Amino acid sequence: MAGASVKAGAALKRNELSLEVTQHYAANPSCKSYVPHSLREKLAPEIKRLLDSHHGSHRSKMRGAYIQADWSDTAAGDVYSADDCTLGIYFYKYVDGELRLVRGQFLPMIDCRSNLVLGFAIVPERNYTAVMIRGLIRRVHQTYGFPRKYFLFEGGIWKRSKIIKGVEAKGDAVPFEETEMGLRSWVGFRHAKTARGKGKMERVIGLLQNRLEPYPGYVGRDEINDSYERVQKQLAEVRAGKATPEKYFLEESQWLVLIEKEIEEYNHEVQTGSIVGKSPLEAWDAYFTEELNHLDAPFEYLLANHRAPYLVTKNGIGIKFSGIQNRCWYRNEHTSKLIGEKVLVWYDPEAPEAITITDFQRQNPITIPRAEDAPGTTATPEMMAAAYASVKAQNSHALTVYRIIAPKFRRNILRRTVGLSDAIALDQQITEQRNAVTVKQKDKSRRFNSLRQAASAAGLALPGSAARSESTMQATSDLIELMQKRRQTEREQNE
């Protein structure tokens, strides 16, 4: 009521009230903020009703009337939902020997009817990418299958990402084959317009966060305002090197075991709300109806590989991967014959080592390894080795840890295989070609490591990865052989 008093007093001074009202009340009370009680009671409700609109249309909308979702007509497995949050626990890990204390990003996926947590991803970084979201979808699909109806996501990257939803053709301007499909060939997507639209997901995340408070490293859901001073002092000690991280915090693997245990316990715990009297596992079993769509092994490459049309340029095919600063280039003798033409490119968003190209009829697959980046032509071998190491470090990105909650119900998961009649042959060709590329790369690495050991024994220092070219390796091998023969000759002469 204090706010109403101030506003009513201001209206009285500006003569905005009627003559009858101003004559009825004293205009010069002893307290400058005084407003008669009866006047405050009459104005306060209207002021409260208009307060949100005064702040802005978005606040008015968010605090106004809303539609409450009723999930009683939904079966378990119809709709999956996922979201992100920064958990309130600091844990530690070492990356290339460097200590990192992080809270990380937590991406859980639930079934909207039963509130069952199907799986989650832990990203030990401040941000996550669409590749990580697609990885979570892929792994939940491997165990459970696709939702029968759709995924319920928020906006932002969950809505804009091409590797998740693809790019739809508009009218007849773009042929269907030339559009990026993402995952929309297999499942639908819906996006919440407000925070209430993903209320189920928010509630489950809140329940899981409640279970984390007893663990070491807990700083609350709002680290700045919750102000857990003891933990902040512990963080400062570890960062300054005055204490080891294990003294106060959990290591990443320990943290994963604990959060997986908490989710398992949550899934077995009787809940209230839409599944009152049942645990999420019991609710899944009770409300599960018909089989789910699932891509079995012969067709799973369709989910593992994103498909998009690309133009073959004079420099090859350039693809921008999430988490890698530079564009990755793919070229060999096959792409040189296709310069200026468009091809369908199949690639795993989580593995930039190689891509596969086909024509628009999905025929004639060719797997092309990634071309290694090279420093400037004037660099010395040592500089090239250092530059290559920096490129390798630059291209590396956080390894997302995925966990799928194992299904433990009375009823087996029913899954219906979905696929295309002509997909098996393409899958076999892609798999065979990529395996051949992998074997070739491993063989080259094995030969290089053997050569480096022989060079070290001969007193030579190879400049790291800069010496991986076939010509350099052959020259080094010849030099080592000559040095060995010379030493053998010297030993024979001495004897």
Summarize the structure.
The chain has 495 residues and is α/β, with parallel strands linked by helices. Helix content is 40%, strand content 16%.
Characterization of the model:
- With 495 residues, the chain is an alpha/beta fold.
- Among the domains are: 2-62, no CATH class; 79-297, 2-Layer Sandwich (Nucleotidyltransferase, domain 5), CATH 3.30.420.10; 442-494.
- Helices cover 40% and strands 16% of the residues.
- The chain has helices spanning 2-13, 19-24, 37-55, 57-62, 130-143, 157-160, 162-165, 199-210, 223-226, 229-239, 252-268, 280-287, 301-304, 333-336, 381-395, 423-457, 470-494; strands spanning 79-82, 91-95, 98-102, 105-111, 117-123, 150-153, 188-191, 250-251, 292-294, 306-311, 317-319, 328-330, 342-348, 351-358, 366-369, 401-404, 415-417.
- A hairpin with a 7-residue loop joins strand 14 (351-358) and strand 15 (366-369).
- The N and C termini lie far apart (108 Å).
**Strand numbers in spatial order across the main sheet:** 7-6-1-4-5-16
What is the count of helical runs? 17
Question: What proportion strand?
Answer: 15-25%
Based on CA atoms alone, the radius of gyration comes out at: 32 Å
Regions with little confidence, pLDDT below 50 for 5+ residues: 171-179, 389-398
The CATH homologous superfamily of the domain at 79-297 is called: Ribonuclease H-like superfamily/Ribonuclease H
The mean pLDDT is 76
* Secondary structure category: alpha/beta
- CATH topology type of the domain at 79-297: Nucleotidyltransferase, domain 5
Question: What sort of overall outline do the alpha carbons produce when their principal axes are compared?
Answer: elongated
How far is the first residue's CA from the last residue's CA? Answer: 108 Å
**Helical residue percent band:** 40-55%
CATH architecture of the domain at 79-297: 2-Layer Sandwich
CATH class of the domain at 79-297: Alpha Beta
Extended strand count? 17
